[in-house]
């Protein structure tokens, strides 16, 4: 009983592996590409909306911090004590600088997330297109799609880190 079961299992595995890289018909491939494009478009739209929301919120927080800092300095000036004005000015500058750094970091993260979402969308569509190729060309095609994704993600990471470094080097 074990031998027929093992043989059946081996045949099942071999059949499923052989089916993995089968060239799809042009109609199936076109349908898969269209579905991949649709999902990619939806995911990219979500990522864009999230990026806009996060950066808008960060900028609003920065403007609020600037307004509050200015109000603190004006109150200190109204009180007339020079030391209080200097302290308030210094505190205001620190608060605005910190908030500016947070805004830059939030914007850089949003841009990174958007770039990665775009790379994922392109990768998804590219891999769906690979399915239309003869089976002996599919692996190379998919590897190329993965390599393009990896390169795009690496560029996005570099851009994100460069933005953070720019704020750090400005002393904020």
In short:
The chain has four helices and no strands.
Show the helix and strand layout.
Layout: H1 2-20, H2 26-79, H3 82-130, H4 135-169
Keywords:
single chain; elongated; mainly alpha; 172 residues; 0% strand; 4 helices
Description:
The structure is a single chain. The protein is mainly α and 172 residues long. The protein has one domain. The protein is elongated and about 90 Å long. The chain starts with a helix and ends with a helix. The mean pLDDT is 87.
User: Whole-Å distance between the termini?
Assistant: 73 Å
Quick one: overall form?
elongated
Structural class: mainly alpha
Question: How many E-type strands?
Answer: 0
Average pLDDT taken over every residue: 87
Q: What Rg is obtained from the alpha carbons, in whole angstroms?
A: 27 Å
* Residues in helix, %: over 70%
Number of domains: 1
């Amino acid at each position: 009983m074990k031998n027929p079961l093992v043989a059946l299992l081996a045949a099942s595995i071999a059949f499923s592996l052989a089916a993995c890289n089968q060239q799809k018909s042009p109609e199936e491939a076109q349908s898969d590409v269209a579905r991949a494009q649709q999902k990619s478009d939806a995911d990219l739209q979500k990522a864009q909306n999230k990026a806009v929301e996060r950066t808008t919120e960060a900028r609003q927080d920065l403007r609020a911090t600037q307004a509050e800092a200015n109000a603190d300095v004006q109150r200190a000036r109204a009180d007339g004590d020079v030391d209080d004005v200097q302290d308030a000015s210094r505190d205001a500058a620190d608060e605005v600088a910190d908030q500016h750094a947070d805004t830059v970091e939030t914007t850089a993260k949003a841009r990174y997330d958007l770039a990665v979402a775009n790379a994922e969308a392109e990768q998804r569509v590219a891999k769906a297109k690979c399915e239309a190729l003869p089976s002996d060309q599919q692996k190379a095609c998919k590897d190329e799609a993965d390599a393009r994704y990896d390169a795009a993600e690496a560029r996005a990471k570099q851009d994100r880190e460069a933005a953070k470094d720019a704020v750090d080097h400005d002393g904020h």
